[in-house]
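Friendly challenge for the regulars: who can give me the structure tokens for this chain first? No prize, just bragging rights.
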Amino acid sequence: MKKFNDIKRLPEFEKEFKKLLKKFQSLEEDLETFIDKQLVLYHKLGIDNGGVVQITDLGIETPKIYKARKFACKALKGRGVQSGIRIIYVHFPDEDIIEFVEIYFKADQENEDKERIKRHYKK
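First reply, four minutes later:
Bragging rights claimed.
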């Protein structure tokens, strides 16, 4: 089964990802697992395990923007899905595309960059 038609990464996401990858070497593999499990469960099978929430306070109707609160990182042993890593992404259901917007570690940054999200998606 093909997961999604396309999975894209914004340049800012790519930069943050590479920076976090130096700290957490398993991140590339963890992201693949996240796509295979969490995103497929939520967007393809309609199963909500509470790990993904829609961000609704941005004044953006479409596309729908989500925050992943449950992200398992093997490099953070013993923390499971409560690793503290957050991913902000957009799902375009008609095109079946996932676009990663932001990734951050809660110890370094409290919340998502709402200005960045608005800059990219507010019409």
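The radius of gyration is 14 Å. The chain has a mean pLDDT of 91. Your move, everyone else.
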